[in-house]
Amino acid sequence: MPDISFYILASRSERDRQMFACKLTEKAYRSGRLCYLLTEDPQQSAMLDDLLWTFRQGSFVPHQLYKGIVPERANAVLIGHLSAPDDWCDVVINLSTRFPDKYMNSERILEILDDSEETKGPGRSRYQQYRQAGLAVVTHKL
Questions:
Q1: DSSP conformation letters of 16-64
Q2: 77 is a domain residue
Q3: pLDDT digits (tens), the chain, 142 positions
Q4: Per the structure, how many domains does the chain have?
């Protein structure tokens, strides 16, 4: 059963939300876990792809966009709006408004919300879905 964590940022800035996602992604990568950043759409995927190269000086998080073709080697973070490939479900960082497919295959699911109704409304729905599935949910207000 996966560990579910909700991170609720005090800011309403999408940029702050994406920066926080980059920090969590770096932490997951450094821990040796395969990580998938689930995004809302291809545009958000492209923004995170760019941001992961520049979010912090000196950081290095190998990553690539996922467009339905699984990489031959599992040594990078994947970013995409499609369902996570089976091998990249260790840590799923959800920036989308959708409930992650294959959530039971994950070790951890990290949900990042900001202080806007655009993220909190769908976040409440996902929170209820996790609880109905019998999963414990931890909330971190930042």
A1: HHHHHHHHHHHHHHHTT--EEEE-SSHHHHHHHHHHHHHSSTT----EE
A2: yes
A3: 899 999 999 999 889 999 999 999 999 998 988 899 999 999 999 999 999 988 888 778 889 999 988 887 666 799 999 998 887 788 999 999 999 988 888 899 999 999 999 999 999 999 999 999 999 999 999 8
A4: 1
SS3 percent helix, strand, coil of the chain, rounded to 5, is 35, 25, 40
DSSP 8-state secondary structure symbol assigned to residue 83: P
Tell me if 14 is assigned to some domain. Answer: no
Q: Is this prediction's pTM over 0.85?
A: yes
Cα 71 to chain centroid, rounded:
19
Question: What CATH code is carried by the domain that includes residue 73?
Answer: 3.40.50.10110
Which domain, by its residues, includes 113? 23-141
**Domain annotation covers residue 10:** no
